[in-house]
Amino acid sequence: xxxxxxxxxxxxxxxxxxxxxxxxxxxxxxxxxxxxxxxxxxxxxxxxxxxxxxxxxxxxxxxxxxxxxxxxxx
Length: 74
Known about the structure:
The chain is of the alpha+beta class.
């Protein structure tokens, strides 16, 4: 399995969060939204602006800078 940044995936792709390489506050905020290491997510939109992902039926927008620090495996 290849680990890549969340921003490299295309709309419709599913993946699992492998690692979050952000600061403590950003990581805590992601955890509070349900984006934890091991979480399975689906990319809803990834073109211009924030990356929108779906987790457990909820859509979450993640800024591109932060999405670069979320590493996933397909």
